[in-house]
Write a structure and sequence with these properties.
Layout lengths: L2 H19 L5 H19 L7 H21 L9 H17 L2 H16 L11
Length: 128
């Protein structure tokens, strides 16, 4: 992946995180954060990362909680106790974008599309 594309994707995720941690998020930004978390998961499973599985699960919980809260009262804010986990996963995603070969990123995107087309509740395996 060229540096400009990686920087652009990284900036978009950082801006989404800032907006969603401060209550200025929306459905699109939450989806972008979850997309980055899942792509990072797939890249880690391919050998590019070593974050604890629990951090990925916490990110899923945070997105679900944010969606529920937005439905209840219109507030798009990530739970405060999950921000550190999100920041760690965004940092992992940054490093993956900077160093992972493009064909691995494309493979992760294919896995994400397959997950989204299926009926599984999460791509994060329970046995990881």
């Amino acid at each position: 992946m060229d540096r400009a594309s990686a920087s652009e994707q990284s900036l978009a995720i950082h801006l989404a995180l800032v907006a969603c941690r401060s209550g200025h998020g929306n459905g699109h930004l939450i989806n972008e954060l979850m997309r980055a978390v899942y792509l990072s998961w797939f890249l880690q499973r391919a050998g590019f990362g070593s974050r604890p599985v629990e951090q990925f699960r916490i990110a899923e919980y945070a997105v679900e909680a944010t969606l529920a809260r937005a439905h209840e009262c219109g507030e798009w804010r990530l739970p405060g106790d999950t921000i550190d986990d999100f920041e760690a996963l965004v940092a992992l995603y940054d490093s993956q974008l900077a160093g992972v070969p493009l064909h691995e990123v494309l493979a992760a995107e294919r896995k994400l599309r397959a997950f989204l087309a299926g009926n599984a509740s999460s791509p994060i395996s329970m046995n990881a």
